[in-house]
Amino acid sequence: MRRFVFVISFFLVVISLPIVFLAVWHPRRVQGAVSDALTGEAISGAVIQAGRSALYADGAGGFDLGWICGTRTITVYMDGYLPLQVEVPKARFPSQIVSLLIPLTPTMLSGTVSDAETGAPLAGSIVAANHLSTTTDEQGYYVLHRVRTGALLSASMPGYESGTAIFYGQKAQDFTLQPTETRVQVLDLYSGQPVSGSLVIWGSAQFKTDVNGTAVIKRLLNGSLLSIHATGYAPTEYGYNGGNLVSIWLRPNTLRGVVRDSTDKHPIAGVEVTLLSAGEIVASTLTDEAGRYAFQDLPPSSLTLVAAAVDYDRFESSVGPVTEMDVYLQRFEVKGIYMPLGILTSERRVRELIELVDRTELNAIVVDLKSDRGWLAYPSAEIKAQKSGAYQPKVMDIKQFLALCKEKGIYTIARLVVFKDSTLAAAYPELAVHKPNGELWVDFEGSAWLDPFLTEVQDYNIAIAKEVALLGFDELQFDYLRFPSDGDISEIRYSQESTLESRCRTINEFCARLQNELKPYGVLLSADIFGLTVWVAPEEDMGIGQRVMDIAPYMDYISPMLYPATFISGNLGYENPLLYPYEVVYRSCMELAKRTKTRIRPWLQHYSWNNVVYGAEEMRLQKQAAADAQTYGWMFWNAAGKYDAQSFSVATKDNRASI
After folding, report:
1. How far apart are CA 66 and CA 30, in angstroms?
2. Quick one: the chain helix, strand, coil %, rounded to 5?
3. Helix or strand or coil: residue 571?
4. Among residues 369, 313, 376, which one has the least CA distance to residue 339?
């Protein structure tokens, strides 16, 4: 019996042990997932620690702790989140699978970003912690979640130096950012010297450069546009692309200097100083009493400076990278010969005449650019010139001619015949004078004339003169600056009544226009007049509107055509004026000097006429007469351009004007 009881008891104990175990330890299988408490997203890699064992959540944040007995607490860790302890709940039945959903609360770091100098909040600053980033609000406040321990914190804002810190678990981190400082140095493009007092403009802010040409700008942003201004310099703009030091080069846009006599260095007042660029006038001015000239607001293009003054050789030179340029003019008197348009068709003949000038006392050539027929020696851009076929393409390139003369230091004068123009009259008969029956009126040579009264006629000749001036001639000489004379002038019909008053007024006003519109081109002006003009009463015009008083005031030189051959028997009291070359020239120049203060430079005769041979002696006498009358040089005329070298002495050339 006792054995039976023992057996029964042992059996009951054995049976009760599992029950007690299950009751006391309550084993259950624990599984679960870790997620972000704010976003609900799974947290991969979270550490789930149970006792001495630990495991990592998988890519979906899941984990499986296996069997857990008794009351147990697990701890869940994840960098960037607050650690969380979770007590594993008991299952309803032993050995039941228990699922845990564990939300981890992200860590939170907050703070402000402000200006270190002003304390003002910096809205829009970027605060970053490794791959995390956010921007500050209007109060400069920011919040960052999930910052990992040891992360490098940074705060950045355009125009400021970045701020950094290390995250070690703190809940707050403020940043004060130092404004960036950009040194903007303004330099002279030509000299490399600093430009003090320059104004650097950025938006509404303005900064002035110091004695070192430097301005310090704080908080300058990449992509900002700076505008720089300084007296005497062209304004410029600069796009800032970063850097603590920026160099900006300003181009000087002024040019000044003094025009002086090359011999005694005295300043010359009233000199026309002109700046040209690509054949166009940039600016023009007259020197003051101290010989000074000044230009402002010059363009960046290549410039040529031209200075023209009576009694001096014309100056022309390119302008280098300078702001001051003194000019020295050499005294000069023309000793020239005439070259007709026809010679320009033969380069050989052109070179022969240039050689003649180069080896003798001669120093100038007067060449037809607009001939007695209205033909042009260059291709004009004027529509009327093009439609009338005025350009003679067989002539030498006029630029080549000028280059040859410049090489030899020869003064060039462009002869422009004004109102005698058969070419334009044929193409535009409405601009010409006519007979009563409407036909074109022609003179004894068969040449047609334009109507001087018509503004359109004057405009055409001024336009041609401007083009010729820009070609680079030293002087423009106007011929046939009058109304027609040779022919039956009683038949001429003008656009208005031709009277002494109307003719003289027209020529006078046209000459005033020539001076006003051509002087800025830096070229001297001269006019040819009949030799007899100086002998008629000053108020008379010989029926052609040509009076000294109306023309000379607007010209730099007045050139009477004092060919003894043009004086008829009885003129000046000589039965045959041809036999008195000295007297005709001297007396005429002296008479002309009584009527004008304009410089006189006479035309002299270089041809024989009516069985009277003009040789070297006659040429010498005419030159002597001009010298004795104290004229400003002389020119010899031969319609065919043929000259006797023995008429001109060999002399050393004067050098061209130079700086």
Report:
1. 6
2. 25, 35, 40
3. helix
4. 369
Q: Which helix (H) or strand (E) holds 13?
A: helix 2-25
For 194-248, write each residue's pLDDT tens digit. Answer: 999 999 999 999 999 999 999 999 999 999 999 999 999 999 999 999 999 999 9
From-to residues of CATH 3.20.20.80 in the chain: 370-396+418-632
* CA 135 distance to own-chain centroid: 46
Q: 556 CB contacts (<8 Å, ≥6 apart)? A: 310, 475, 524, 525, 526, 598, 599
Give the SS3 label for residue 295.
strand
Contacts of 350 (CB under 8 A, 6+ apart): 339, 343, 344, 396, 401, 404
User: What's the pLDDT tens digit per position in 69-99?
Assistant: 776 789 999 999 999 999 888 767 766 788 8
- Is-contact 250 300, C-beta < 8 A? no
Taking Cα atoms as reference points, which of 74, 72, 77, 104 lies closest to residue 91?
Answer: 72
Nearest to 642 by CA among 335, 337, 371, 334: 337
Is 29-104 CATH 2.40.10.410?
no
Helix (H, G, I), strand (E, B) or coil at 553: helix
DSSP annotation of 294: E
C-alpha to C-alpha distance for 274 and 287, rounded to whole angstroms: 11
Question: Are the C-beta atoms of residues 632 and 557 closer than 8 Å to each other?
Answer: yes
636 neighbors 604 (Cβ within 8 angstroms): yes
Task: Provide the β-strand partners of residue 524.
Answer: 475
Please tell me the distance from the alpha carbon of residue 593 to that of residue 557, in angstroms, as a whole number: 12
Phi-psi region of 390 (alpha: psi -120 to 50; beta: other; left: phi over 0): alpha
567 within 8 A of 584, measured Cβ to Cβ? yes
Q: What is the CATH number of domain 108-177?
A: 2.60.40.1120
pLDDT tens per residue across span 143-193 = 999 999 999 999 999 999 999 999 998 999 999 999 999 999 999 999 999
C-beta of residue 449 within 8 angstroms of C-beta of residue 433: yes
CATH numeric code, 181-250: 2.60.40.1120
As to burial, measured by CB atoms within 10 angstroms (0-12 exposed, 13-18 middle, 19+ buried), residue 290 is exposed
- In the block, tokens 């044929």 appear at 426
| CATH T-level topology, domain 370-396+418-632 | TIM Barrel (3.20.20)
Using CB atoms within 10 Å of the CB of residue 553, give its burial: 0 to 12 exposed, 13 to 18 middle, 19+ buried. middle
Are β-strands 97-104 and 28-36 bridged in parallel, bridged antiparallel, or unpaired? parallel
Q: Coil, helix or strand for 147?
A: coil
- Residue 393 corresponds to which tokens in the numbers above? 């393409």
The confidence band for 2, taking pLDDT boundaries of 50, 70 and 90, is: low
